[in-house]
Amino acid sequence: MKILALWMLCVSLVLAQEATPSGTQQSYFNVVAASAQMNFSLTTDRTVYFPSEAAIFSMTAINPTGKPLTVLKPFFAAKFALSLVDSDGSLHPLSPGPDYDGNRRNPSSWPAVETTTVAAGQTIHASVSSASVCLFDTCWLPRDPGLYQVSYSYTDNAQPAVVRFSIIAADLGQSLAVKMPSDSELRGEKLYHYRQAFELTAGGMTYLCVSRTDYRFTGLLTAVAQAAVTPGSTPAPFQRVAQSPNGFPSLTFRVTDDERLVLTWKDASGKVTTLALGSDLLPIAGS
Predict the structure, then answer these.
(1) Average pLDDT, the chain
(2) What is the DSSP letter of 253?
(3) Averaged over 46-67, what is the pLDDT?
(4) CA-CA distance, 275 to 264, in Å (whole number)?
């Protein structure tokens, strides 16, 4: 009888130990619970995009409680879901809304949870590009024209925020390419890297666009611009850098030794404009 009682005691201790979260687990659960108390919203940098264009998603979150909250850093453990909005308003899911951080449920990832403390009433902001992170199983916006909706959840148990945007068709204008200074090798063969600039026209406005990443084969350069005007074509993320109702006459495109991308054009009055961009397509001040 004593042996049976001792065995039952050991089993009870083991079961209790398995049912009780570790300190790391409990800390993670507490952070997720606190994050769910935040009021948050999602916006995009535009309401209308071209096929395959890169989009910036921005999150704004406010602590509505009367006390500080230690929460997950914005976009650390977010879930995005993309849907096509039909003419009757119904939604057609295009992605299952994968985890932004797919390993966040893995116990080994819990100690690396990134948190921030938000004071009572404080607002925090964060942004992420669809071209730099694959938000919906792809790294670009949809390729077919239409109205789309993105649903975003800060945590699993938080009410998702929703934002809508449109994809429209465009006409492709002139297209230029430059060879980047840096090369690479694949199985002993040298590969050259290229960037592309091209015009897209829609609604009486012409937009100057630049590919966001280097391309190692000249055949892909056509796909970059073509994806912007051909539904179902090979996607390649790009970004608008300038716009003009009169287009960009006398456009030139060059790259410097330090990989600055330099675009120059002349308008109808003869005024010359030069735009210098870093490899991240951010304007370079004073250039």
Answers:
(1) 76
(2) E
(3) 90
(4) 6
